[in-house]
Amino acid sequence: MEYVTANSVDVPALGFGTWPMKGETCRTAVEHALHTGYRHLDTAQMYNNEDAVGQAIADSEVPREDVFLVTKILRQNLAHDDVLRSVEESAQRLGTEIDLLLIHAPSRSVPIEESIRAMNELQERGIVEHIGVSNFSVEQMRRAIAASSTPILTNQVEYHPFKSQSEVLEFCIENGVILTAYSPLGQGRVIGNEVLEGIGEQYGKTAAQVALRWLIQQEMVAAIPKASSQTHIEQNFDVFDFELTDEEMERIFDLQGGLLSRLRTLIGL
Ligand code: NAP
User: Quick one: DSSP state of residue 182?
Assistant: First the structure.
């Protein structure tokens, strides 16, 4: 396993996404992920699977302290008292404390500062270890950082070979914040991409594995692919025995520009 470090906290660079799995499917997948070696799990109030994730952790042979557990507050629960109540309910469903609590997405009505204050209170009570945000712009990150009495550990955003996050990533690197890449496989769209497959051939790796390697090889980036099949769960974890060259990294960055210019041509810009 490789780690991304922010404010002396080591976060496993490869985590396991659990949306949209629920119930027994989710529990089995998480249990298999833990058995495979994943030590970073991503869930959310919105996913309706915190109970299944908690059950898998409880049933696993992996000690609880070795697992980095992330959950997120539903957008509708971001008012101060709703944060306190809903996160206590999350902890009950999970059956354990939360290592990292995120605002799932900025509220349209509740100021960021109000939610952060409640999250800081949950840290003081010991229910939550670290806090962070998701789907935040640079400006929203600035506000969260200024409002919090503790570091903002991550901003979880959509990031994969077809989606640029250069502005957010630059800010994250400058401010010691981890960028956690969600939908790192572009929800499966990276599969079959010729550039990724071509690069993978030399290493005996698939397009999915190359995409994940490209992400975790970047400074301050972690990735949380979701997989339900055992083969995919294991394949996605098998990305620590090869390294992409600078030139290969650049060719994958070019996919973002390539797609954009193709889109511009299509819409006549
Ligand atoms: P993703 O991880 O990019 O892609 C998941 C899809 O790729 C599934 O259909 C999966 O199929 C397939 N897949 C996985 N590994 C594969 C492999 N090795 N080869 C071929 N196909 C493979 O997309 P995502 O689920 O949207 O994102 C991952 C996680 O990020 C979510 O589960 C969730 O935890 C988090 N997320 C957060 C937000 C947010 O707002 N913060 C938003 C979206 C997602 P199988 O299931 O059949 O294996």
Answer: E
Burial level of 122, CB count in 10 A (0-12/13-18/19+)? buried
**Which alpha helices (DSSP H) does 149-206 contain, by range?**
166-175, 194-203
All residues at 6 or more sequence positions from 184 whose CB lies less than 8 Å from its CB, including other chains: 159, 160, 211, 212, 215, 223, 224, 225
Model confidence pTM above 0.90: yes
The contacts of residue 24 (CB under 8 Å, 6+ apart) are 52
Cα 118 to ligand 1 centroid, rounded to whole Å: 30
Q: Which of 38, 47, 159, 182 is catalytic?
A: 47
* Mutation pick for ligand 1 pocket among 183, 196, 230, 237 (CB with most ligand atoms within 8 Å): 183
Tokens at 261, concatenated: 């210019």
Distance CA 147, CA 131 (A): 12
All domains in the chain, ordered by first residue: 3-266 (3.20.20.100)
Cα gap 26→162, rounded to integer Å: 27
Q: For residue 94, how far is the Cα from the chain centroid?
A: 18
pLDDT beyond 70 at 129: yes
- Is the per-residue pLDDT at 260 higher than 80? no
